[in-house]
User: Fold DUF2927 domain-containing protein from Sulfitobacter undariae.
Amino acid sequence: MVRVRSTFLAGLGFIALGLAACTDVQQPILPMTKPVARPDIPAAPQKPAQVARPTSEASAALRSYLNQVQSAQLSQGLLRRDGGGEDTPFTDAMLARNFEKIAFYNEYDSDFSGRGGASPLRRWTAPIRMEVIFGDGVPPSQRKSDSETISAYAARLGRATGHPVSMGGTPNFIVIVAGEDDRRDTLAAAIARMPSISQSSIAPLINLPKDTYCVVAAYSGGSGANTYTAALAVIRAENPSLLRLSCIHEELAQGMGLANDSPHARPSIFNDDDEFALLTRQDELMLKMLYDPRLSPGMHAEEARPTVQRIARELTSAGPV
Assistant:
């Protein structure tokens, strides 16, 4: 088992944006039927094919380490992809309890220095526009597969929450897939796309501990201290395929507002035991609860508890799920 798979940061601010527990994002060519020869006009130079930059020894060593982590977890029956089953039933009371612990608490404080504490409910009110930015060292084949995965998963998050989530437009949630050698430069490119995020606020995302596979930071601004306006998710490109997919599932879902983990949440990706790699049925219900109009940003756990319990009963009305 590893100590950390992913991390969610929390905080406030718009000018000097503080980190918050959980980040955003985004052409056809018509062929000519016959080329026309124009020998007097030099041919336009062809754009060179995109080639991944060679990786350093540090990046190669990290890739080897993460492959060993994935192999060890799979050998222990972890990183399940079934979403939960007959061995992981949960009731309305369990759903309500898990939602409260995950939605009303922070996993970490803003600089990884300690565990986060109780927090009001946080979520987005504006439509989420995601974009993916890759580090120079990420090969074209991985870029293609990761882009397709993130796009499909963004649509799934939109369906689960009922909140608009799309790829395209001016981004407010950027997903970075980068390695040790290019994470700093890729983060610089990301905040250039979202100027409301300050350079100083991304420091915890640059120097990641070895056992942090991915991280997400959500930012709030203006008078809406509990309303997210921007987010950045950072996923190590060195992660092998399943760990990388697991990071995509957890970080983007946490970036919606489910900021904490709980050892009691099962089946769930919001649990540091790494039993589940991919979003589960209970996780989808918690996302649905998070964006239920009967709850609103800024509500505290005690105030929201009766409503949370009512929604959980409605979602599990047929009995244990």
Remarks:
- The chain has a mean pLDDT of 85.
